Amino acid sequence: MHAVSDVYPCKSVRIGISLSLSLSLSLSLSLSLSLSLSLSLSLSLWLMATVSSYQPWKSEFSKMSDRKEPTSISCTASLPMLWKEYFRDPSQWWDNRSRKVHPGYPDFKHKGTKQCLWIDNPCTPSWVTAELSRRSMETPLPARPVICDDCTAFVVSLRACAKSKDLRKGSLIHEEILRKGLVDQCSDALITMYAKCGALVKAQELLDIHSSRNAYTWTAMITAYAQHKQARDALRCFEHMQLAGLSPDAVTFACVLNACSSVQDIDKGRKIHAEIIRQGLIGDDVVLGNALLDMYAKCGALSTAQYLLQWLPSRDVVSWNALISGYTLLGQGEQALRCFEQMQIEGFSPTSVTFTCILEACGSIGALEKGEEVFYEIAKQELFENNIVLGTATVDMFAKCGALSKAQQVFQNLPSRDVVSWNALIAGYAAQGQGNQALECFAKMQQEGISANEVTYSCILDACGSLGALDKGTEVHHEITRQNLLQTNIVLSTAVVDMYVKCGAFQSAEQVVEELPLQAVAPWNSLITGYARQGQSDQALKCFKLMIHRGINPDAVTFTGVLNACSHLGLTDEGLMHFMSMKKIYNVKPDIGHYTCMIDLFGRSGQLDKAMEVIKEMPPGEDLAVWSALLGACQKWGDVNVGKRAFEHSVELSQNDAAAYALMANIYATASLYNDAEKVEV
DNA sequence: ATAGGGTTAG
């Protein structure tokens, strides 16, 4: 209710004012707050009608001031207020006089509310005229005499190209503009067109040459960078904009916040937040508030996001969606579901976006029942029509919950499918170990003429690996190479290596790793742990040395493989050396798995006292498994002394560890210490 | 032609 009856009509009213200049701010605000829904709506509709027929450059002002109702009221009521606001703090207003190419173009525009002022407005009261004259502003600067029709036509066409993302046509217009020598007048429209069509280099080039003085143009550039996953460039562009002396407004800030979330730069985001508060922009802009909330949510600061949701002056369903998506992104599906309930209690109806997020949340925590419930609701509201994203999210939810027949069923009933929908299904089959089903889907997808992408290949390689389908896997690898996909995609590269490893084709795996254009640890890990798993420990260590030689930094996974290999080969000293270097040289924090490896390593050679030294360094907490492993080793070697201490630690950490009691009793018994054994068993 | 540039999702 809140969103529909309050926020949006209010927004329409505001737009109406800035365009028509004909209603008073105070009047319209109080109207939108106090009137009923239908009245606000009809008011804004009326305003829109007025706006569309209103053409200030045809000197409509005189006609309007002659009218009786309701414009005559607002004309006298609103202007003085706006001028008062302008005189109070001119820095809150854009001064557009130097860019004025037409009398209809406003002389001043408020940075936050977008309200406009014309110096030569006939309704302007005399005290304002006096004040203007005192400030030597009694006449507007002469409009730039370039009211050239060519220019106008070009700008209009460029805008159309921008809207339809027609880069080809836009470039042709650019050529035409160059021929006529009108680039200077059209540069802003050109930059915006290139930016919107994704021709970022071209847009930036023109921006550099023409050093635009237009904040809208800069914002278009920033947005284009952010939308093309070049958030760093977006932020850099924002810096340049400020260095050029242009002030960002609410829209600019919203775009920049978007860029901050892409690069997870919460500090930058906080600074922007402070600036937004300083400029008082939050109050009347839901979108800006939502962008802010989304930034905190995407950067993982969910408590701040939650707090914002509570205190934002205006919020809508998008605010809730941003919060829910944040929880989902962080894997906190339960929290996401809780928000979903809460938003409905507060009277917001979920949208397709809400449902999409919630489905993902259900999939991530395996909440099949809730997911199914949401699915029926979506079907009931007929939201699956023309919404591939929502359909795919449903398939994905069922697949992630392991309900593959259900996933298949939904998939078949989708009104349309794309590569992502297919991927959801294929990934589901691959993850459940149903490799043949995955391959079957892959074939069907190609029959339907839909080309695979990196994600598809990655899933299919996974399926090939689990099936040991070397031929199919090799075929896919060659296709990937043909498409040059290994140049940029580490995940895919690792999938290729992993496929060869799982098929036991280690030579091919090694060859791929050696020839990869990207330096990354993951493909090497796949190879090393693969060798270690296969018992080919010497090969694992050989690869590790090669990798270090290539200057690639090992991570926690690498060392798990390496320590396992050392353990199997009985290389106690080398294992200890790697264990030390992982902390000291490579700054990798050992986890439980590494400690267990070390126990295993020393345990095999009977050096249980050394094993204990290693464990003692462990940070206290989750170390029960490690003490149990040590106790097991003690049983094997009949080491009563170390065993006793391992037993004490095990018991201390877990009061009822039956296995530990049994092991200890066994150790005593083996050492013929039957009295002690009996005591333990009691 | 007198605005233009913005938030949430597989």
Task: Outline the secondary-structure elements.
Elements lengths: L1 H19 L4 H10 L2 H17 L6 H7 L4 H18 L4 E3 L12 E3 L5 E2 L8 H9 L14 H16 L2 H14 L2 H14 L3 H11 L4 H13 L3 H13 L6 H13 L3 H13 L7 H13 L3 H10 L5 H13 L3 H13 L6 H14 L2 H13 L7 H13 L3 H10 L5 H13 L3 H13 L6 H14 L2 H13 L7 H13 L3 H10 L5 H13 L3 H13 L6 H14 L2 H13 L7 H14 L2 H9 L7 H14 L2 H14 L4 H13 L3 H8 L1
Antiparallel strand pairs: 1-2, 2-3
The protein binds one DNA strand of 10 nucleotides through helix 7, helix 9, helix 11, helix 13 and helix 15.
Distance N terminus to C terminus? 68 Å
Q: Which structural class best describes the helix and strand composition?
A: mainly alpha
The best one-word shape is elongated
Q: Estimate what percentage of residues fall within beta strands.
A: under 5%
Which regions have little confidence, pLDDT < 50, spanning 5+ residues? 1-77
Proportion of helical residues = over 70%
Mean pLDDT: 82
How are strands sequenced across the largest beta sheet? 1-2-3
Major sheet description? 3 strands, antiparallel
What's the β-strand tally? 3
Number of helices: 38
Rg calc: 34 Å
Quick structural gist:
It is built from 38 helices and 3 strands. With 682 residues, the chain is mainly α. β2 and β3 form a beta hairpin.
Tell me what you see in this structure.
Keywords: Membrane, Repeat, Transmembrane, Transmembrane helix. PPR repeats lie at residues 214-248, 316-350, 418-452, 453-487, 520-554, 591-621. InterPro entries: PPR_At4g14850-like_plant, PPR_rpt, TPR-like_helical_dom_sf. The chain has 682 residues and is mostly helical. 71% of the residues lie in helices and 1% in strands. It has 38 helices and three strands. Strands 1-2-3 form a three-stranded antiparallel β-sheet, with helices on one face. Strand 2 (108-110) and strand 3 (116-117) form a beta hairpin. Helix 15 runs antiparallel to helix 16 (302-311), helix 35 runs antiparallel to helix 36 (640-653) and helix 36 runs antiparallel to helix 37. It starts with a helix and ends with a helix. The relative contact order is 0.03.
